[in-house]
């Protein structure tokens, strides 16, 4: 299979470039009978949409999604769901000047060498604009998981630069432009962003994704472990350089006696594992963290090479996010939801007959 | 597809339990005409083999691999390669006593709930014993990559507990039981292991994998990015809880002006990206790091539940590694090599005709 | 994977219903640098288009395809190609009256039972309208195969009812509304169609597909044999009930001494095998034949059941082809081309290094 | 994915050559808790086994299968099932003499050109010996389908040369060496075989496969239709040149009014469709027919070329079946069962929630 499809039973296949005619995707394998409308998808698309605050790119895109198939009389039919978003604000002139240059930290050079030439308009296929369709597809998965299993897939910005944000309050996340889960950190984030704007520079970030109410038993050992597929899904998001499940890299300096999550009849006493053991969900919350690199589209001049291999200088103009981590929040939720949905269908495909006589251990004691 | 196959064009499918009759795998898609013998595979199998030092489990397994098909007159034929390792030292009695218990931090509970019952002998399919076949398959990939592209895939233990190990010398790695790349750190590691043995506890670790001489252009956007597939491959290894590409989580506090790797006609001036941009290899070394959790098989008594959901106490006897990170080194190399090999074949399948007029930028200036 | 994707390296994923908003597909894995425009696709779409002659359905669809991505400055970029055709002439009222009925010989009943409900408008996803996107995707493959390998993929109507048509002249095929390869048979076909119209009945057909200049070596034993994938591809076309490679069912009464195709240094002396041995192309023409059932959309009244399981009578009105075999000709070409293209990429992915010292045997002696 | 795996959720991956060390397979995705032992598999292996009658090759192979994993305490665990058969009677000397020749009608030439060299011992991977593992894997599927759904998958020899055999009695099939379903035809088949032996020639055959009690709703439109996957599965069997579903090529001369299967509340009145409409099972028997070519391994001398491309004469000695159709009967059953099983799991993966309010129509009236 080629690289633009994700999933085995619930599959998402996407197309589209930053400055092409349109972006689109096909969601295949969605169970029938789920109420679905464009409005359901628009909610998350608007959360990712550019130009929503002074902290993100000023490109103006309504990102209006149309459902072209797979939904009849308001319900999914079980056949493939086609969706499309037509590009509006393209401003190719912003990009013409770097047609001959390879921006450091960008995919310009690798696309040129892999394919022999490239769509240089806004990064073409390598632009994060592609993630709009992931969000649309993820919204289908989120709706199904919520409706059928009560699963809540949510993410928040857990760090930007040296500003760490703890999960104080899920409701707060939607009430500020940073997806910040701690109202007390908003000023610090705002100050950091203002500095960066002045410097014409960018910063990295950490995003945390949590799926509550995932039942025990999802995940396919040994290669398609739930956590391995989550890592695949999250690392495939533009600018992501690291993925952790549960305690992640903190495990390096933990002892077995601290790390292991004790099980009691009343519930698990901790969740260092992040809700996955042996590649299979434990029934606890599935927790993942991702590291986002600072975008390389900055106005600080840089040395580079051109398409002839000669030395050149580059200054990225155009409209860019000083921290791509902010808009990555709904994208991370989408990829987590798509992965969980795929494993939901895979699990019951093989194990629909299974009845375990062992009682389910609660996620935590009451 | 089910979960025991990895790869799209170069595929590895495995079977086998800790205390079953045998472990085996099928390597499909290997190009024909590659010289291959069991000896080639045994080298890496011996590096992973238990019982090689006092720092690893004392289970005695010769792990002798047999090639059953796909090789004729000493060369791969292009057809599927079957391999098998028969289990010898099984000692089921070590495990009978925990037949009714779920060991905290283990997959006992999740397997029981997913499948309705489980092979409780040594963890059955969830045991790291399964990784022996990954190493055998990885050795095929390593040989091909070395022979056809001069690619060197190597790993080392970069941290255990609070002992950090820098890459001082690749040769040193094979000269100590820790795969330690800095001879000056061996005493500290040895001391740490002795303490753990006394405490009957275990510790986490970090392993770093480096692939040198990977050509520019491998990786399939958008979902099958090279780094996304590497994350999938490495996260699928038992006990791995985190994966980083290049600077990984250090990116969170980096600025774009520091992070972006400057390109000059003489070469890249840095490799923060870890050799991947836009999901495609840059021609620099591909660098990944993994976090390994401390094994939960420790002799420190712990609270848990049994298969009836009642409270119980567990003490893991049997023969276990105080730090699973050590033996993970050859496994990490194997999974990196399998992923690179798959992308090598996928890339040329689609792009064999491509000729880029842009000169290749050296990995670093001479 | 779900059911709306075909191919492993060159993949085609489709969506769309007979009376939905639009039909579309994503072609993934197409090599970069191929000149491609909507006009290239429109040629074959027009050959399949309804309403082109009095022998086919009078539904009016311009079937204008738009390319939404994957093509830049007139060339494929190597990224996924999105295409769409918006439906125009939908006339849902034609179908409302059978909303409650299951038409015998149609997928109404099976869709209802599989999914719990169905898009009853013109058969929804089960309508042959879906094949429009196969033709668009196939045109991409045909162009690549022609340009890079000189491969010609062509089909013709080889039988309708009891009227057998031999391949007299490829040029004739495009000069009549039946894709008839023998001008002397056109009157007989015309007469047969007139009778059927009078009777309000339909008839089956046989279509033959030939791919000339396919090189030796394409096809992946053992399950993904070239002929097995061709069978999969052709049997997936609506109304196809049989597939033959080469002599097909004539083999049942052949002896080995007649059937085997003798090889000489000057070339093969016959092609009973249809260009495939052991699942791999021989270098001869790849020849396949398909059996099309007579459409069940006829005006002859029939007994059936309704969605409550009660007895009912059905008369299909609406606009239908008395012989779906006619418009199947470009669809069969498309599926053959897509299959060959996928195997072209798969073959070179694994075997790009191979150099055989055995000279190639010509398809036939000069 | 490479070519040695079949299926999406229930997958079978095989390895092994005619004269290699062993044949083996991995069955992945089998539901847990199914009672399974080597004896269950041996029954069908013995039906396919060479040397069982004077009508088949005299090669002596006990074909004893060992289960190496995936079964614990007599039940499948849900993890991958490894199986192996070690080759015994190899007699390579039989084949040495044709090391330099390409046997007409065989895969010798195509393997040589695809891979650059070949395992010439008995055809290596292209030998029908490979099908032993399909039969072993198919036996797993047959057991599951029988136990969970009451599905019976059976096949019989329906024609050899000009001797047609109707399905008179399923019990008769197992009581003669031809898998002949009509006791009155056994003498004619015996006479035909004796003639062929005298002539040193071979003959083609037709095999029919029937799956009774398949529920309505299995199959994934549009490309993975149940009939399309059956065609793929059956055409992938060595020597198969044609596949029909239901009436197959008879449809070419049928009218819609004859072909369409009338539905009544009491049941379907006919089964021209062969149990599949729109790619989804109807609840009737699934019926397929395959055309087997006459084996090219005959003692009639033939003209051919050698590995240098020079003209040569070939006489195939060794031990061969005058009609490969006979032993194809259990293989056809196996591939049908594997395909049904895969679709059983795929269907419930997506549609486990579905409840249709439409009553199920019986396969036929009482």
From TrEMBL, chains A, B, C, D:
<dbReference type="InterPro" id="IPR020541">
    <property type="entry name" value="Chorismate_synthase_CS"/>
</dbReference>
<dbReference type="InterPro" id="IPR000453">
    <property type="entry name" value="Chorismate_synth"/>
</dbReference>
<dbReference type="Pfam" id="PF01264">
    <property type="entry name" value="Chorismate_synt"/>
</dbReference>
<comment type="pathway">
    <text>Metabolic intermediate biosynthesis; chorismate biosynthesis; chorismate from D-erythrose 4-phosphate and phosphoenolpyruvate: step 7/7.</text>
</comment>
<keyword id="KW-0057">Aromatic amino acid biosynthesis</keyword>
<dbReference type="GO" id="GO:0005829">
    <property type="term" value="C:cytosol"/>
</dbReference>
<feature type="binding site">
    <location>
        <begin position="125"/>
        <end position="127"/>
    </location>
    <ligand>
        <name>FMN</name>
    </ligand>
</feature>
<keyword id="KW-0521">NADP</keyword>
<keyword id="KW-0456">Lyase</keyword>
<protein>
    <recommendedName>
        <fullName>Chorismate synthase</fullName>
        <ecNumber>4.2.3.5</ecNumber>
    </recommendedName>
</protein>
<feature type="binding site">
    <location>
        <begin position="238"/>
        <end position="239"/>
    </location>
    <ligand>
        <name>FMN</name>
    </ligand>
</feature>
<feature type="binding site">
    <location>
        <position position="278"/>
    </location>
    <ligand>
        <name>FMN</name>
    </ligand>
</feature>
<keyword id="KW-0285">Flavoprotein</keyword>
<comment type="subunit">
    <text>Homotetramer.</text>
</comment>
<keyword id="KW-0274">FAD</keyword>
<keyword id="KW-0288">FMN</keyword>
<feature type="binding site">
    <location>
        <position position="48"/>
    </location>
    <ligand>
        <name>NADP(+)</name>
    </ligand>
</feature>
<comment type="similarity">
    <text>Belongs to the chorismate synthase family.</text>
</comment>
<feature type="binding site">
    <location>
        <begin position="293"/>
        <end position="297"/>
    </location>
    <ligand>
        <name>FMN</name>
    </ligand>
</feature>
<feature type="binding site">
    <location>
        <position position="319"/>
    </location>
    <ligand>
        <name>FMN</name>
    </ligand>
</feature>
<dbReference type="GO" id="GO:0004107">
    <property type="term" value="F:chorismate synthase activity"/>
</dbReference>
<dbReference type="GO" id="GO:0009073">
    <property type="term" value="P:aromatic amino acid family biosynthetic process"/>
</dbReference>
<dbReference type="GO" id="GO:0009423">
    <property type="term" value="P:chorismate biosynthetic process"/>
</dbReference>
<comment type="function">
    <text>This reaction introduces a second double bond into the aromatic ring system.</text>
</comment>
<dbReference type="InterPro" id="IPR035904">
    <property type="entry name" value="Chorismate_synth_AroC_sf"/>
</dbReference>
<dbReference type="GO" id="GO:0008652">
    <property type="term" value="P:amino acid biosynthetic process"/>
</dbReference>
<feature type="binding site">
    <location>
        <position position="54"/>
    </location>
    <ligand>
        <name>NADP(+)</name>
    </ligand>
</feature>
<dbReference type="GO" id="GO:0010181">
    <property type="term" value="F:FMN binding"/>
</dbReference>
<keyword id="KW-0028">Amino-acid biosynthesis</keyword>
